Amino acid sequence: xxxxxTAGLLLITFSELGDKTFFIAVILSMxxxxxxxxxxxxxxxxxMTILSVVVGQAVSLLPKLYIYYAEVVLFIAFxxxxxxxxxxxxxxxxCDTEVxxxxxxxxxxxxxxxxxxxxxxxxxxxxxxxxFMAEWGDRTQFATIALAAGNNPVGVTTGAILGHxxxxxxxxxxxxxxxxxxxxxxxxxxxxxxxxxxxIIAAIEGA
Length: 207
Prior knowledge:
Elements: H1 2-16, H2 20-31, H3 34-59, H4 64-88, H5 97-113, H6 120-135, H7 139-150, H8 153-178, H9 184-206
Helix pairs in contact: 1-7, 1-8, 1-9, 2-3, 2-5, 2-6, 2-8, 3-6, 3-7, 3-8, 4-7, 4-9, 7-8
């Protein structure tokens, strides 16, 4: 359980910092109550995590050999992809402006549909939907599924949700100040190394 918790915590924390959902939380926290934004974001990420773990547990019913190879290949592939992307980035490059623009566009469209009264529940619902849709199909979702397929589901769930909580708190509290200072190259390389590391661990444990 401790291994699953640690894997979920580290992978999510380093993968989500500077991600699209991170900047959605940053932008929304500038427009609405930070507490409401945090509640909406963490609720969406927790729901996505639980859903991914359930899918991972369903996948675990497949033959163990298939799960073993799929988990190792998935982590190694994600890791190599991130390392390749990180090596191409400039050392001084901040977080991807394209990701920031995508987050801004998503928030702007949602804000136009939000009622003028901007009630408590309307803000939370907007935040929840935006975050959930942005996270759907993200590499962290597949990583959570892979982790849950071969590890303790409770450990993966608690570790991943805690990782999401840390990233969301950073985004809501100090994201505006940190947004331009987070080195995308560093985060990408760390994320790549972590994916490969857990791929190797999975390969050793499953051998």
